[in-house]
Amino acid sequence: MVRALVFDVFGTLVDWRSGVAEAFRAADVPGDPGELADAWRARYRPILDAVNDGQRPWGTFDELHLVTLDDLLAERGVSVPLAVRQQLVHAWHRLDPWPDARSGLEELRRERVVAPLSNGHVALLVDLARHGDLRFDCVLSAELANAYKPAPQTYLTAARLLDVAPEDLMLVAAHPSDLQGARSAGLRTAFIDRPLEFGPHTASRQDPAADVSVADLHELAVALQ
């Protein structure tokens, strides 16, 4: 029985690409805003893996985003004042939710505990929830496990803090690698299709191993009845 739902956030609940591209556009950074957003995001997984592997000390998303942004701009020979770079980092705190996210979470909350389980740190997730009026029962983060997804302890810490068995906790995500990590820790999984996460040319994704595959959160609520 699924007693609680935890949600990936970036790409699953919020549209990170549009918000970050708009921040690059507003800051007048040279280059195509969408391509800059994609290139910044592409540096996300390697630096998180470096933290999990012990090659880098723990850092919040803001700290790691500033490192990867600085690397991206330096690689392109672009000089941007620190204050502007900090504004770009803070853009990740005010991303808009997908159209079904707010009402879908409300529907799912009627029967189950709902919480984010993101690699973003707690303060960032609180800002996103307030910006998008996303109503959770609590805020869970990789920060609480001191390990980034897909490390097993991130998922198991969420189960422990919610006082549910791993098999009674379901991760909802648009990313098969995240879902596989959750399954490896004993969680149940729901794949949600976000065909515009990387813009109009987003590659098709599926996760045949997921317990449930849906097009939006309302469909998930029906599937869990």
Automatic annotation (TrEMBL):
Keywords, in A-Z order: Hydrolase
Enzyme Commission numbers on file: 3.8.1.2
Molecular function (Gene Ontology), one example: (S)-2-haloacid dehalogenase activity
InterPro entries for the chain: 2-HAD, HAD-like_sf, HAD-SF_hydro_IA, HAD_sf, PGP-like_dom2, S-2-haloacid_dehalogenase
Keyword Hydrolase applies: yes
CDD domains: HAD_L2-DEX
Family: Belongs to the HAD-like hydrolase superfamily. S-2-haloalkanoic acid dehalogenase family.
Protein name: Haloacid dehalogenase, type II
Lineage: Bacteria, Bacillati, Actinomycetota, Actinomycetes, Mycobacteriales
Gene: dhlB
